[in-house]
Amino acid sequence: MRKRIPNICLLMLLILSLFSPLYLFAGSGELDYVTDGAGLLTEDERVELNDKAKEASERYDCDIMIITVDDKGDAHIEDYAQTIYDQYDLGYGEDRSGIMLIISMAERDYDIMAHGYGNVAFTDYGKDRLADMFLPGLSMGDYYSSFNVFIETCNSYLESARFGEPIDIRTDPDSKKKTGRIVLAIVPFIIALLTVVVQSSKMKTAKIKLRANEYITDEGLKLTGREDIFLYRNVIRTKREKAKSSSGGTTINSHGSSHKSGKF
Fold this sequence. Notes:
single chain, alpha/beta, Diaminopimelate Epimerase, Chain A, domain 1, five-stranded mixed beta sheet, 7 helices, 42% helix
């Protein structure tokens, strides 16, 4: 459910915005599904995307939102997104379910934030994959196409979650294809290894000599080369950072939200 703000409150917010690093939106008293504070879209583009996001949001009872701002100030993009989400009481229903993309143009920061049922439909892995879909267009400045891809991909994610299979490491078709390719690559290696083992097991006719002089021929010992062998060495080891867990699921913070943020 979207929270409308009385006109007197809007006036107060506008005054406070002069002293706050947070970008506060004025106008109709509420944030649209697509709120273009940075002016990256034409009004026709914004309205078209807004209608598409609204339709999908109402179909799945989970708001799909896009917010752009010129400058978020000194706040971290995830904190900024959380403040906006809470300030305007965004999200659908009592649990305020939603998925929100917010971008700040000053430092080219973005954040994908999920809340309520959004945490179920958009896992950590799912948000990574979602970012892979729209970031190329965002980086090239094709904002309309990028936002359109975001909305359509969110639509398909929510459709998948509706049938009990949120996009995750274990359910993503692309992930399964990668696993299949890895298996296909390993099989020839295993076959080759088995072949070597079998061939080696047949080569047991040579008798091991117990004394060194039994290896010297009647012509004597001839040295054809030499090499230095070092018995000691110093090894410097550098600790590697552990990779992100591949077990799937969603990491939810104390506000009941999950995030995926970065630069574009």
